[in-house]
Specification:
binds fe (ii) ion; 16% strand; Jelly Rolls; globular; alpha+beta; 5-stranded antiparallel beta sheet
């Protein structure tokens, strides 16, 4: 067989039935309204140290023997699939965002980087589109401690809605709002696929391993994560403010949240949800809040 035309699965000779291809998974959602909305705004969620030490150590032993880009043998290993793909905190967050019976990753790759190295250019991964839909998630796993010196991935919070050109972004050396995903071993971070990111500059010696894989939605979106009956959608409070265009990120995030909730969203402009009025009136919802998210009757 010509190695230049065969797939990675064919090259390693594993029958597809032994991989995770087409497998779905379900578990309890772990994110609440605030956290789902926050994810829509930030475009990423970092779960620190959620994978057990034993799995991380096994992974580090594994990558020493399998330093290749796509070590698909992992997809046949229960300790990996259970410990990483089905990790309770990570899978619970995926379940919250993609609904029940989501599809497990059917492939993965290791962004193994030799350090020290310069930073990568800012980019969105191939196939990125602008959409309020959340049909899939791109997820990353660090099996080892990844401090700033090891060149963790940097993300620009809120940039998954930012309409700009790759050749323009690639010229930027640093972005003030960028955040390094500095993390201890066993950390997993979940992203909206289209978020702008890059490998950070590393100054340490050795190799940094970072696994990347995608989960997929199989069900229609509905608000079936951890419901908080007291969450005030009209005037939510968030940490930080990803600002690129005036309010535009917040508007796009609200549209994504509505899509996830199964609610119709119409932004009419002006002082309507989610562009809040400066003073919160008592006992009412903001103009423009979709009906299913309202706490009070129409005013
Ligand atoms: Fe990338």
């Amino acid at each position: 067989m010509n190695p230049t035309t065969s797939s990675p699965v064919e090259r390693i000779g594993i029958p597809p039935s032994e991989l995770t291809i087409g497998q779905t998974y379900d578990c309890e959602p772990t994110l609440n309204d605030q956290e789902v909305f926050e994810f829509c705004r930030q475009g990423y969620l970092l779960l620190e140290g959620v994978v057990e030490d034993e799995v991380n150590q096994r992974m580090m032993d594994f990558v020493d023997e399998h330093p290749e880009h796509q070590p698909l043998e992992l997809l046949t290993e229960d300790w990996f699939v259970d410990g990483v793909f089905k990790n309770p905190q990570a899978a619970g967050a995926v379940r919250s965002l993609l609904g029940r019976d989501f599809k497990l990753p059917q492939t993965l790759c290791n962004h193994r980087a030799e350090c020290p190295a310069p930073s990568q250019g800012w980019h969105r991964d191939g196939g990125s589109i602008y959409t309020p839909r959340l049909d899939y998630l791109q997820v990353f796993y660090y099996p080892q401690d990844t401090p700033k010196e090891a060149g963790p991935t940097e993300v620009i919070p809120g940039s998954h809605f930012m309409r700009t050109k790759a050749n323009y972004m690639a010229h930027l050396r640093s972005v003030k709002l960028a955040v390094p995903t500095t993390a201890p071993a066993g950390s997993i971070f979940i992203t909206v696929y289209s978020i702008w990111h890059r490998k950070g500059r590393s100054t340490a010696n050795g190799f940094r391993n970072l696994f990347k894989y995608n989960y997929w939605r199989t069900t229609e979106p509905r608000r079936d994560w951890k419901i908080d009956p007291d969450f005030d959608f009209s005037w939510p409070t968030f940490s930080g403010e990803p600002h690129f265009e005036q309010f535009k990120c917040g508007i796009a995030a609200a549209e994504m949240f509505c899509w996830l909730s199964g609610e119709d969203y119409q932004h009419t402009g002006g002082q309507c949800w989610p562009c809040e009025a400066p003073v919160k009136p008592p006992a009412c919802d903001q103009e423009g809040l979709p009906s299913g998210l309202r706490r009070y009757s129409e005013v």
